[in-house]
Every structure is written in C-alpha cells, then in structure tokens.
C-alpha cells in the first residue's frame, strides 16, 4: 500500500485538509481493500480446486481416492459378534438334521420350509437363552430357561398344594 503524507497535528494542517481530500482517500483505500479481497478469493479458489491437483498428479489422486474408499468401506463393514459366530454353525446343524426328518413328513415345500424355520428359530432362541444364563451367572451351573418358546416345562411344587 502507498504511504500517505500526513500533515503535522496543528490546527492549520487540519484546516488545510478539506473534506474532499478525505473522501478521495477513503475511496482509494476502499478500492485497495476490494482488490485485496478479490485476490485472496482467487487464491482460495485456486487452492481448493481439486481438478488442478488431479491434472497435475493423477496417480496421487487415484491413490488418495482408493485409500479413502477403503477407509469408508471399513467404516460401514458389519462385524459378526462372538454369539453370532457360535450360533451360525449350530443353526446350520439343526437345519440339516431337521431337514432329513421333515422330508418325509411334509409334502409341500412351503410347509417344509415353514416347519424348518420354526424349529430352527426355537432351537436358536433356546440355545441363546441358555448361554446368556451361563454368562450372567459367571459359569455357575446353568438351568434352562422356562416359559414361552422353551422346551422345558416349569417345575410345579406339589407338596404345598392345599
């Protein structure tokens, strides 16, 4: 920016400088500030323009895109829990063993698939409840769950019946 010559701080210097001079100085400074802001805006646009970076170094851009894609895919990857890893082979085994039993009993494929699904779901929920009881009691002797969806009936105390 250009240096301005300031007159000394006397009353005569203040009078010498007219309002028109002050307006001209303000207009010049306003124009200088506008040009500076435009230059800064252009520099920012140049730095943020990704097309220029890709054009200058396409292999780096390809590597960066592949790396970002890999990281994004790892973020959305679902992992199986230990319970799911245990339950999957058990469910397949139950499905395979019930498939042979139900082959002769059910004539239609839809009925067979429905019965296999119900049996598999019941077996999986029973095993899940039994293992959750074992985990909750810290390895103590486990008792099977009774109630809805269970193959074990609840115990009835016959001695205290009046």
Describe the overall structure:
With 162 residues, this protein is mainly alpha-helical. It starts with 10 loop residues before the first helix and ends in a 26-residue tail after the last helix. The longest helix has 30 residues, at 19-48. Helix content is 70%, strand content 0%. The mean pLDDT is 76. It has 6 helices and no strands.
Quickly list its features.
single chain, 162 residues, mainly alpha, 6 helices
Name the overall outline: elongated
Strand content: under 5%
* Class of secondary structure makeup: mainly alpha
The H/E string reads HHHHHH
| Major sheet details | none
CA-atom Rg in angstroms: 41 Å
- In the predicted model, the low-confidence regions spanning at least 5 consecutive residues are none
Cα-to-Cα separation, first versus last residue: 107 Å
Q: Name the helicity range.
A: 55-70%
Q: How many helix segments?
A: 6
Mean pLDDT across every amino acid position: 76
What is this entry, summarized?
It contains 6 helices and no strands. By secondary structure, the chain is an all-alpha fold.
What's the layout of helices and strands?
Blueprint: H1 11-16, H2 19-48, H3 50-56, H4 58-75, H5 82-105, H6 109-136
């Amino acid at each position: 920016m250009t240096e301005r010559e300031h007159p000394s701080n006397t009353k005569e210097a203040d009078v010498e400088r007219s309002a028109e001079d002050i307006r001209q100085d303000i207009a010049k400074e306003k124009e200088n500030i506008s040009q500076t802001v435009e230059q800064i805006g252009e520099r920012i646009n140049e730095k943020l323009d990704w097309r220029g970076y890709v054009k200058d170094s396409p292999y780096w851009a390809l590597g960066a895109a592949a790396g970002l894609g890999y990281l994004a895919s790892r973020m959305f990857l679902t992992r199986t829990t230990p319970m799911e890893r245990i339950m999957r082979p058990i469910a397949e085994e139950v499905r395979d063993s019930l498939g042979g039993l139900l082959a002769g009993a059910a004539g239609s494929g839809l009925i067979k698939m429905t019965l296999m699904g119900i049996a598999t779901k019941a077996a999986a929920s029973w095993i899940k409840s039994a293992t959750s009881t074992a985990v909750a009691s810290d390895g103590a002797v486990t008792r099977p769950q009774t109630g809805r969806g269970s193959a074990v009936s609840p115990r009835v105390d016959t001695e205290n019946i009046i």
